[in-house]
Design a protein that fits this description.
6-stranded antiparallel sheet, Heat Shock Protein 90, 3 helices, globular
Amino acid sequence: MTLTTAATSPTRQPDLEYAVTLPRAARNVGIARAVLRHALSDWDLDDLADAAMLVASELVTNAVQHTTGASITVTVIRRDQDTVRVAVDDSSLTRPVPRKPTAADTCWRGLLLVEALAVRWGTDRTAVGKRVWAELNRGAG
């Protein structure tokens, strides 16, 4: 596991960032949440923790279940005083698509949960796959 912190934006007040690269395994959802919890605590954004933990769990679980690469990277970026971006990079080029589960379905609700909790979310292509991200804001909701 590699944990990094960095200032990432020289043209404005720097974003604060935590990133961890983990083996693509379900057991690492808890490690991703721990990194996120640490970052939120450092930034005095503990009030976002519940929503952020759910979002991170869904994004990591999707990457574990729907990709084949050996590792994923989880990144938490403080965008401004009240906003964090939670992102998961994986090696797949396939973009996630929210589905409309039926009452009988026991899955397919993760991205609907992300949509409900995040002020915005999306997918960006990377050099080796994609980054799925969601932004949470303490003033939203």
